[in-house]
Amino acid sequence: MSASGVEQDSAAQRAQKKAREQRSYLWGFGLALVLTLIPFAMLAFTAVERMTLWLTIGACALIQVVVHLRFFLHITLDRSKREDLLLILFTVLILIILCGGTLWILFDLYQRMLPDMMP
Amino acid sequence: MSDTTSLIFGRLGWDALPFWSMLTDHSWLSIINGVIATGAAGMVVLGALAAVILVTWLGKWRYLWSEWLTSPDHKKIGIMFIVIALVMLARAIVEAVFMRAQQAVGLDSGFLTAEHFGQLFTTHGTIMVFFMAMPFLTGIINYVMPLQIGARDLSFPVLNQVSLGLTAAGAALVMISLVLAPFSIGGWTGYPPFTELARNPGAGVDYWIWAVTLSTLSSTLTGVNFAVTIFKKRAPGMTLMRMPLFTWTALCTAILMIFGMPPLTVATGLLALDRYLDFHMFTTDLGGNMMNYVNLFWAFGHPEVYILILPPFGIFSEVFATFSGKRIYGYKILVIATMCIAVLSFTVWLHHFFTMGQSAHINAAFGIATMLIGIPTGVKVYDWMLTMYRGRIRLSVPMVYAIGFIMLFVLGGMTGIILATPSVDYQVHNSLFLVAHFHNMLIPGLLFGMLSATNFWFPKATGFRLEERWGYRAAFCWIIGFMLAFFPLYVLGMMGMPRRSVAYFEPQYVPWMIVAGIGALAILCALLCLLIQLWVSIRDRHTNNVFAGDPWDGRTLEWSTASPPPEYNFPVIPEVHSLDAFMTEKEGGRAWRVPDHYGDIEMPANSVMGVVIGLTSLAMAFGLVWYMWWLVIAAGVITLAAIVGRGFVRHTHRIISADEVRTTHERWLERLRQTAPIDRSREQSTDNHGRAMPPVEGAVQ
Amino acid sequence: MSQRPLALPRPQARHPGLNLGADHAHEADSREEMVFGFWVFMMSDLIIFGLLMATYVTMLGGTAGGPGPKALFELKSVLIQTMLLLVSSATFGMASIALKYQEKRRLVMWLLITLALGFAFLFFELRDFHTMFEKGGVPSRSGYLSAFFSLVPLHGLHVAGASVWLVALLGQMAVHGLDAPVKTGILRLGILWHFLDIVWIGIFSLVYLGGLS
Question: By CA distance, what is A108's nearest residue in B?
Answer without folding.
Answer: B358
